[in-house]
Design goal:
Strands 1, 2, 3 and 4 form a four-stranded antiparallel beta sheet that branches. The chain has seven helices and four strands, in the order ααααβββαααβ. It has helices at residues 2-11, 22-34, 47-76, 80-101, 146-165, 169-173, 175-190, and strands at 112-114, 118-121, 131-140, 198-208. The chain is an alpha+beta fold and 209 residues long. Among the domains are: 2-32, no CATH class; 109-208, Tetrahydropterin Synthase, Chain A, CATH 3.30.479.30. The model is unreliable at 1-14 and 40-44 (pLDDT under 50). Helix 5 (146-165) packs across helix 7.
């Protein structure tokens, strides 16, 4: 082999292909060059990826901003219960003031005339006969005279019974019917009184059977 190299030097060239093992060495060098990694492409060289990252950051910041604004608005929103209390407070105060200024009706015991219970047949309608049981107290005016009322009690009872006889059950079952009956009794009794008058009528009991 040395002789071959020397011969090649004398000739000015050396043929390595004839050297034992050279072919294998050259193949390994070629394979190493083929498998050498190329330049790595960084993310900075991809503009689309950079743009997507920027858009994502902006979107996240926008969502965070609106969440903060919503929480801030909720914190500043007044309590509905407190607003209703504040709204009702002036009305309650005015009602209390009106209640204090409203004169209280004072009924003197001597102005009340209690009548005996009434059991009166009502006007015949459809179905079985009906009747009413009621206890009535008359409120008299201050200028009323007790002796006159004592003397006129039978007349007062007769007047009330006559009025009740004209009423049907349906007329007295309603609140308006009972109120109208009071006005009717007052007007009838006051029509024959000389001293004083009936100011109001109280039902102690009122039952229709």
């Amino acid at each position: 082999m040395i002789g071959s190299i020397l011969d090649s030097k004398s000739n000015g060239s050396y043929n390595f292909d004839k050297t034992p093992g050279w072919g294998n060495f050259r193949e390994k060098v070629i394979m190493a060059e083929d498998t050498k990694p190329g330049p790595v492409q960084t993310s900075s060289s991809n503009p689309l990826l950079t743009l997507l990252m920027i858009v994502n950051i902006v979107a996240m910041a926008t969502v965070a901003y609106f969440q903060w604004k919503f929480m801030d608005m909720e914190a500043k929103r007044p309590d509905l219960t407190q607003l209703l209390k504040e709204k009702d407070a002036p009305a309650a105060a005015s009602d209390e003031a009106a209640g204090e200024q409203k004169p209280v009706e004072v009924v003197k015991k001597e102005n009340l005339l209690t009548l005996d219970s009434f059991t009166v047949n009502l006007a015949q309608g459809e179905g079985p006969k009906r009747f009413v049981r009621t206890d009535i107290v008359l409120k008299m005016s201050d200028d009323a005279k007790a002796p006159e009322f004592e003397a006129r009690k039978p007349q007062i009872r007769d007047t009330i019974i006559s009025i009740l006889n004209t009423k049907r059950p349906d007329d007295l079952l309603k609140k308006e019917g009972k109120s109208f009956l009071k006005e009717e009794i007052k007007a009838s009794i006051n029509s024959f009184l000389v001293d004083g008058r009936v100011e109001d009528i109280y039902y102690i009991s009122f039952q229709i059977n």
